[in-house]
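USER: Note each token:
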Amino acid sequence: MEMRESRKENSSMKSIFTLGLHVLSFLPAVACAAGNAGQVGKKASAVAERIGQLPQPDYQRQPSDPPWLANVVQFHGHLGPAVVAGARMGMIGLHAVEAKGYFDVEVTCEGPMAKPPQACFLDGVQVATGATMGKRSLHWVQAEQVLVRVKNTRTGRIVDVRPTPALMDLLAAFKPQAKAGTGHGPESKADDEHLAAVARKIAAMPDKDVASVRWWREGE
């Protein structure tokens, strides 16, 4: 009787021992799966975080940069002479007609802006006035000479903003080769730094050195 009970006890112990071995054999797989799940979770969190953010522009802010310059670069993606020139002329026109921007302005840009870098000028005007191509409140007309016409739709006041020779000289002084296949952007880091320097010079120019203005109303 005692021998039978001993055999049963030994059999039970063997079963428990075997079960323990099986459990231990699964632990590495469970740990691996948990690790993979953790990595997937981190990647998902990183993707979700990126979805909630705007793209990061190629821009290193300098202490002397005016606050509005960061807004221009955030919209455009990098710091260049044409986009800054467009912003300066757009701001001059907006203030000249005493408009608030966005929904009380209509803007027409004239000039040779069929492709970058000249077309970057249009991005600057959009940021500066709030008139956009999407709202159909900004229009571009192919022309030989650069002109920004800003209309206050509440008052009917209109201003023609034309670049000064000094501004045009800066825009024409340096023409980097576009990156292969993009049609936009400087070819080298040296080009990029030079363009940023010219852009900052335009940003710092007094209004009178940037553009001339002429006011008029429709029907005049």
